[in-house]
UniProtKB/TrEMBL annotation:
It comes from Vibrio penaeicida. This is TonB-dependent receptor plug domain-containing protein. Residues 1-23 form the signal peptide. InterPro entries: Plug_dom, Plug_dom_sf, TonB-dep_rcpt-like. One of its GO terms (biological process) is siderophore transmembrane transport. GO terms for molecular function: siderophore uptake transmembrane transporter activity.
Length: 303
């Protein structure tokens, strides 16, 4: 939820988990890929990389990339100009020059466009890698401020998993709606995996009631409405190091906010800003790491 100077946040969360796995339970060494585009141990990578792990996401109850980045030093979240949502500033560089990726693929269909990090759900995420500073040599001019790379789970370990998470919260007397519960969130993660292929489903839905700090005015301070993310990923190993992956995704948004504006000769006018969008994406990618420093990656994206 959006941080405000005054807030009351009783929090209720329920998670139902069912699964079976044959994987080793030892904590694995953290491997990163963003700084060099090849997989290396975090302690061995020559480019400083910060990592938000899956454990960190669960500990902070992060439901979106915005909430995952909120407590990272050096990361600033600001309102998008004229729009709902948040963009990231890294080391003083605005969001148009901070590249946000999912498994190395861009989240924005156009260059020079700031990514709304409040729209990106973090269900099914293995870790989030953050590289601050210019990495334009690897990623182009869009990465002058840095790169945020969301790494999703790719489990080839003969396992299955089902996880349903429900949570709700309230801002107390600052709820826009006269209802005890202001915000609700539901997330479903399902996985079936064999040694050489897997299917993964992620469904994430948020219902936001908005925040009203002054009930005596028409406007309120945070958007109300709903956001939903749905994705299905199919992965197939073509060799010990090769991978083909197909991933269709759906994003829907229907949010609004009341505000007041002054018009000469008319006075104060009550307005509502409404944002509705539906977006379908399809990505097909092939990866193969031929050596420690040689990675072939090809992808096609339809947005």
């Amino acid at each position: 939820m959006k941080a405000l100077s005054t807030r009351l946040l009783p929090y209720i969360s329920v998670a139902i988990v069912s699964g079976y796995a044959t994987a080793n339970t030892k904590t694995p060494e953290i491997m990163v890929v963003t700084g060099t585009k090849t997989e290396r141990a975090l302690l061995d990578t020559p480019v400083r990389t910060e990592v938000i792990t899956e454990v960190d996401l669960e500990r902070n109850h992060a439901r979106s990339l915005e909430e995952a980045l909120r407590f990272v030093p050096g990361v600033q979240l600001v309102d998008r100009h004229g729009k709902g949502g948040k963009e990231v500033i890294l080391q003083g560089v605005d969001g148009q020059r901070v590249l946000v990726l999912v498994d190395g693929l861009p989240t924005s269909p156009t260059s020079g466009t700031a990514t709304d990090v409040s729209k990106i759900a973090v269900a099914g995420v293995k870790q989030i890698e953050i590289v601050k500073g210019a990495v334009s040599a690897l990623y182009g001019s869009n990465a002058m401020g840095g790169v945020i790379n969301i790494i999703t789970k790719r489990p080839f370990n003969k396992s299955n998993e089902f996880k349903l998470t429900l949570d709700a919260g309230t801002y107390g007397e600052h709820n826009v709606r006269d209802f005890p519960i202001n915000d609700g969130h539901a997330n479903l993660y399902a996985l079936y995996s064999e040694d050489n292929w897997y299917l993964q489903f992620v469904g994430d839905s948020r219902n936001m009631g908005g925040v009203d700090l002054d009930k005596g005015t028409f406007n309120f301070e945070d958007y109300a409405g709903s956001r939903s993310n749905i994705s299905l990923t199919a992965g197939l190993r073509t060799s010990d190091t090769g991978l083909v992956e197909i991933k269709p995704t759906l994003y829907q948004e229907d949010i609004y906010r009341h505000y007041e504006t002054f018009s000469p000769g008319v006075g104060e006018k009550q307005m509502s800003k409404v944002e509705k969008s539906t977006r379908y994406d399809l990505s097909v990618r092939y990866e193969d790491q031929f050596a420690d420093d040689v990675l072939l990656s090809a992808y096609y994206m339809l947005m």
